[in-house]
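Sorry to interrupt, but I need a hand with the structure work. Go ahead and set the record down below:
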Amino acid sequence: MRVVGMMSGTSYDAVDAAAAELTVEGDALVLRPLGMVSAPYPDAVREALAAALPPAATTVEAVCRLDTWIGQAFAALAVRADRELCGGRAGLVTSHGQTVHHWVAGGRTRGTLQIGSPAWIAEATGCPVVSDLRSRDVAAGGQGAPLVSMVDVLWLRGRSGVPVALNLGGIANVTVAGAGTRRPVAFDTGPGNALIDAAVRHVTGGRAAFDEDGALAARGGVDAGLLRRLLDEPYYAAPPPKTTGKELFHLPHLLGALAGREGIGGPDLVATVTRLTALTVADAVRSVAGTEVIASGGGTRNRTLMAMLRTELGGVPLRRSDELGLPSAAKEAYAFAVLGFLTLHGLAGTVPACTGARHAGVLGSITPGRGPLRLPEPLERAPVRLRLLPG
């Protein structure tokens, strides 16, 4: 089956769509990458989204408009992905949508909201659409994240040592597949690009949205005092499973730590929050005794961040997921293609040890496509490993 997986991350700069040919052979889920397409949000949509996200206040009207506009943006890209990557033969679209709030209180996730109405995708493509994947895990007592841990566990199971899958999105997360008597574990480590992007927008007056190639951080030096203040955030010391988002790691969080130290120059501020990401990720890797780190996500394009991370990891090798056959820029979109495929076949898409849920669950809601909704027969047994074919 050809499946299109779609998402827009916490950086909310663009929508990504990755297409995969997915089959089950024995105990393996076999994935052949078909490629990725991406499109930026229209400026008006991005601006409206930025104005509605925490800590800003918003209205139900604004959320309704965004639900439609984001659904339409996903739909347009899904049509393109089907045409360009699947030859018009996609059988399913999985849409993560756009996270606008992840409600965490008292160390527990109480709710999560991803918007971008799947009806627009189903109407435009004619394909059934799996969406709202996080809510079921939250309802089962889980964190609703990191959902990519299911794919990481299938992918890295059996690899020697203790490989750690790292995603450097707006928020960074890690997964350890587990082996023998060791249980899998996954959790958000804290900010990936979130505070870097916030710092760049702040020091450039909004003229730049991110630190391209890490060039601004490379010109600065780390302010040790500010770094210590930022590291005082209690989230870092909380035990996994745990999850976080831009509800915590946003510009006011950074400005609060910066109070009384406003003389720090722009490059120094960006360098300091870049070091914060590298340090907190490396601390997380050490906490699970990781022997290698396999990174993906937009943060892998930040050369300064990757250099700082290599320094903080010491002798632990750091490589991109591309080296193992999974394109780093598209890994999360491919992961959601897999999760939608599992849902369509009646299979659980979560690892309870990774999300903290009481049990594994079949994820998401299904919006029918143009014709009658015909589900395949449920698979008799779930795959236990992921095998990648050349694209």
Remarks:
- The mean pLDDT is 95.
- The longest helix spans residues 60-85.
